[in-house]
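Batch manifest, entry 17 of 40.
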Amino acid sequence: MADTRPIDEPIPDDEPLYRAIGPGDVQGERVAASAIDLEGTSVHRAKYCDAHVPLLANRPDLDGIAATTPGALPGSVVIHDTDYRFFAVDAPSPGDDHHAEIRVNTDRDSRENKRKIKSKSAKLALRETLARTFRIHTPPGGPS
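Output type: C-alpha cells
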C-alpha cells in the first residue's frame, strides 16, 4: 500500500484547486450549484497534479475542469443569522496525493465539518455562493 504524503497546509491563497465537472454541472458560463457538495467539495491541488490530465479517469462523464483558489473562497456568509465560513483543507490519501476539500462550517477555528446544515434554503445559498467562486477551466464535452 502506498504511503500518504504529509499534510501540506495552509494551502496558498493563489493555488488553483481543480474540480472535475460534467455537462450537467454547468449553467451557461458558470458552474452549477448542484456541482457543490457541502459535506466536502473534493478538489485537486495544482501543486500535486497537472490540470490537463483527466481528473477522474474512471468517470468519463466528468471530463471538464473547474477551478477556484482558497483566496477566492468567501469569508463570512451570514444566512438566517448563522455565520458560515468556507475553507480549503489538504486531504491526501494513499494514491491520491492531489486531493483536498473545500469545507463549510460555522466555527472559524474548526477544520472539520462538525454540524450538518439542515435548512434547505441555507444549503442552496451556500452551494450557489461556492459555485460562483469556480471558473470553467476546460468545458465538459458531450451534450449540454
